[in-house]
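job 3f2a | input accepted
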Amino acid sequence: MIHAADYRMRAETCARRAAEAQDDYHRKNFQQLAVMWTEMADKAEGRIPQREVEDAIETIRRAGQLPARNGG
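job 3f2a | predicted structure (72 res):
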């Protein structure tokens, strides 16, 4: 299992490579990867925004995998 510190290290590497990129294509891709790794670290540390959790649960409910909410 990868830990948050590993994700953050990967995010830093991608951010550094984005800053060093010679063209926009690679710069944007490394920037997107840096954001992705940072989000993974946040989630690994339990820093998931409540709204994101509620949206995910609602998506699962709509797919028929969870019962409907009681009274809400």
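job 3f2a | The helical segments are 4-20, 24-44, 50-62.
job 3f2a | closed
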